[in-house]
């Protein structure tokens, strides 16, 4: 596996070509943490490794449950091999419990449960601070059809049920999370990007403690020790199976 040239550098990852494999990419997880669309920034030694290992475990689990994704395999502690996708510029957020932007936007108190879970769409556009959009906006702003958007939302809810169950078994309440989808070469839409404590809210189901990037956003403590606990609990779960 020969790492090729840098294709793109994002806030949390670098994306490299793979020599001789035009339909594959290498994602390299960085130690950078950003919040509030890059307005708050820091670096945490070991964060890239933790998010790579956690994302790899989660995509492996989803693969076992027949959720197609771009994930191929973990290459080393900070890198993974994925199928090349054209990312659809949508952030698909699923919420089980009110937290974060929805509490500010709609005045819903934190901790209120949503039954059934909510799906929200945001337009992935840094210059606009990723605004919330509706389905009609999504058809106009992206190349997806109604059938494709319906299937993305169904998939997001299916992923929610699987992840909520996984995290429950590790003593964590899955509050909300963000997914991204992309098209592989033949146009099929698959789950892409990462699923980690950077992109999920996870609360300890006994103490209610925040165990995710809110620790950084809200200066609640040591991010790395919290992310280490998430990885350890996922490892114990996969070993116990
Ligand atoms: O900020 P908000 O409450 O809308 O975030 C909902 C969920 O989506 C949170 O788990 C957050 O970590 C995730 N998210 C993300 N990337 C963004 C925006 C939100 O991973 N750009």
UniProtKB/TrEMBL annotation:
InterPro entries: SAICAR_synt/ADE2_N (IPR028923), SAICAR_synt_PurC (IPR033934), SAICAR_synth (IPR001636), SAICAR_synthetase (IPR050089), SAICAR_synthetase_CS (IPR018236). Its EC number is 6.3.2.6. This is Phosphoribosylaminoimidazole-succinocarboxamide synthase. Residues 6-233 form the SAICAR synthetase/ADE2 N-terminal domain. It comes from Halobacillus amylolyticus. NCBIfam families: purC. It catalyses: 5-amino-1-(5-phospho-D-ribosyl)imidazole-4-carboxylate + L-aspartate + ATP = (2S)-2-[5-amino-1-(5-phospho-beta-D-ribosyl)imidazole-4-carboxamido]succinate + ADP + phosphate + 2 H(+). GO terms for molecular function: phosphoribosylaminoimidazolesuccinocarboxamide synthase activity. Belongs to the SAICAR synthetase family. It comes from the Bacteria. Pathway: Purine metabolism; IMP biosynthesis via de novo pathway; 5-amino-1-(5-phospho-D-ribosyl)imidazole-4-carboxamide from 5-amino-1-(5-phospho-D-ribosyl)imidazole-4-carboxylate: step 1/2. Keywords: ATP-binding, Ligase, Nucleotide-binding, Purine biosynthesis.
């Amino acid at each position: 596996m020969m790492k090729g040239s840098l294709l793109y550098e994002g806030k949390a990852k670098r994306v490299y070509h793979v020599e001789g494999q035009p339909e594959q990419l290498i994602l390299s997880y960085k130690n950078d943490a950003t919040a509030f669309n890059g307005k708050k920034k820091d670096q945490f030694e070991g964060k890239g490794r933790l998010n790579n290992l956690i994302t790899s475990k989660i995509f492996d689990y989803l693969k076992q449950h027949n959720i197609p994704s771009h994930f191929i395999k973990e290459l080393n502690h900070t890198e993974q091999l994925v199928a090349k996708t054209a990312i659809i510029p949508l952030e698909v957020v699923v919420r089980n419990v009110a937290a974060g932007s929805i509490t500010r936007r709609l005045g819903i108190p934190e901790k209120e449960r949503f039954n059934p879970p909510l799906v929200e769409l945001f337009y992935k556009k840094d210059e606009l601070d990723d605004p919330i959009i509706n389905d009609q906006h999504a058809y106009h702003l992206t190349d997806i059809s109604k059938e494709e958007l319906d299937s993305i939302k169904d998939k997001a809810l299916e992923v929610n049920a699987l992840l909520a169950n996984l995290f429950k078994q590790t003593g964590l309440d899955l509050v909300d999370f963000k997914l991204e989808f992309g098209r592989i070469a033949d146009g099929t839409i698959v789950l892409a990007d990462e699923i980690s404590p950077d992109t999920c809210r996870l609360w300890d189901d006994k103490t209610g403690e925040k165990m995710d990037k809110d620790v950084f956003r809200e200066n609640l403590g040591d991010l790395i020790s919290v992310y280490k606990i998430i990885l350890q609990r996922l490892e114990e779960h996969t070993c116990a199976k």
